[in-house]
Amino acid sequence: MPAKGKHRRPKSQRFARSIAVAGTGGAALALPLMGATGAHAATSQSVSEKAVQSLPVTQKSAEKTAAKKDAAKTSTVRTYSVRVGDYLSKIADEQNVSGGWKKLYADNRSAIGDDPSLIHPGLKLSIGKKARTSTTKTESSASSSSSKAKKTESKSSAKSTAATQSSATTSSSGYTLPVTGATIGTGYRVAGSMWSSGYHTGVDFVVPTGTSLKAVAAGTVVSAGWGGAYGNQVVIKLNDGYYAQYAHLSQLSVSAGQTVTEGQQIGLSGATGNVTGPHLHFEIRTTPDYGSDVDPVAYLRSKGVAVG
Known about the structure:
single chain, 308 residues, alpha+beta, Glucose Permease (Domain IIA), 3 domains, eight-stranded antiparallel sheet, three-stranded antiparallel sheet
């Protein structure tokens, strides 16, 4: 009996201690509580981890959205209004056109026409992507008719240009007339209030609009574009150091920085700027600027070119 009692007492004591420990919140029962807390923490941690893991997906989605917006901005067509002194390569550089002036011309060919050098102040150019040529059947039909008309005009112009070029006169000295088969209208240094300098700074060759104009000698194009009262103009620095200016052009065939050879077409005559009719205003200058003119007829004759 004492042995049994002795055996039972430890059990009773252990049980009592367990209860006592449980009652006092001891470490023995704290472990299951900690386990429960740990389980709760694990559940929370799992949810948190899932949230953290899903964050990159959200970021990727946001990045994709931002990328789409950026792409939309990049592909958005912008309209540029041509200003005085503009030409395609200049506009392409300033507006960061990918593909340069050739891409700009290709995207706006229907507005510019067959000659990429012929642009004028106020002309609207689309920058960013190719502009829609038509949105309705009516517009499509109109575009088709316009295209046929342009082709006809182009063929006529090409024939006229070819005929003019075939009759070009050159000299053995490497100089030629700026336009062939033309007579001189207003001569050099003719006085008059219509000119800001008080006199005519060049000579006027009387030719109809669309006549091919030639580089009088080899050189480099200094400027090609709108010249205010001169309308569309081209200024070429000749290899001998003098400058040749062509004014009132209807079309430009060259651009700034381009090298030209004697007799090469630099544009077509016209009546742009301050004029009373179509003609070529031609000057020879000692600098590219207005006011440095010399007698163009005397200059050409000194180079072996017969004038008039």
